[in-house]
Amino acid sequence: MVNDIDLRHLRRCVELAAEALAEGDEPFGSVLVAGDGAVLAEDHNRVAGGDRTRHPEFALARWAAANLTPEQRAAATVYTSGEHCPMCAAAHGWVGLGRIVYASSSRQLAAWLAELGVPAPPVRTLPIGEVVPGAVTDGPVPELAERVRELHRRFHRAG
Ligand SMILES: [Zn+2]
User: Fold this and answer.
1) What is the Å distance from ligand 1's center to 145 Cα?
2) Residues 61-116: pLDDT tens digits?
3) What is the mean pLDDT of residues 146-154?
4) For residues 153 and 102, what is the distance between their CA atoms, to the nearest angstrom?
5) Which residues make beta-bridge pairs with 138?
6) Quick check: 137 and 101 in contact, CB under 8 A?
7) In this structure, which long-range contacts are made by residues 46-53, counting pairs with CB atoms below 8 Å and at least 24 apart in sequence?
8) Which of 10, 68, 69, 145 is least surrounded, with the fewest CB atoms within 10 Å of its CB?
């Protein structure tokens, strides 16, 4: 279940995705929140420079590995505008982070990109649970997913 606190963090993720878009990058944004509710770190996609691994969920997983104890990681929640790709889900699982809450799902993204005529990505789109069987996830959130969809539409129409 997604509560009001979750929605507040997810709205920030969508803002970060919009910031990425404004900087010419793909619209994805994520926030890492501690078990006590404190926002620890946030990031957005930075792949426009040519390094296609610079996803925010991957950056937050590596930040967590460098800065948090295993217990703190397990208690933390990752909020994200779009469900983790397999690379980011794997990083999440290896680092031992806790719950994931996403505004839009990988399945939605794949459908939107197909509608826009965007070629399939080189990495298969999979639900987080297929990569990290023990992951606790919530999402998508319909009203926010619609906003994320609009950001992707703008990114690919502009490109
Ligand atoms: Zn990713």
Assistant:
1) 17
2) 999 999 999 999 999 999 999 999 999 999 999 999 999 999 999 999 999 999 99
3) 97
4) 19
5) 101
6) yes
7) 46/20, 48/23, 48/24, 53/87
8) 69
Task: Kindly list the structural domains of the chain, giving each domain's residue range(s) and its CATH number in brackets, ordered by start.
Answer: 4-125+138-153 (3.40.140.10)
Q: How far is the CA of 133 from the centre of ligand 1 (A)?
A: 17
Give me ligand 1 centre to Cα 86, in Å.
Answer: 7
Amino acid at 2: V
Distance from residue 37's CA to the centre of ligand 1 (Å): 24
List, as one string, the DSSP characters of 34-66: -TTS-EEEEEE---TTS-TT--HHHHHHHHHHH
pLDDT at 39: 98
How would residue 120 be classed by pLDDT, with cut points 50, 70 and 90? Answer: confident
pLDDT of the residue at 158: 67
CA atoms within 13 Å, Cβ hemisphere of 19: 15
Query: Rounded to the nearest whole angstrom, what is the distance from the C-alpha of residue 88 to the centroid of ligand 1?
Result: 4
Cα of 90 vs centre of ligand 1, distance in Å, is 9
Q: Which residues pair with residue 79 across a beta bridge? A: 31, 101
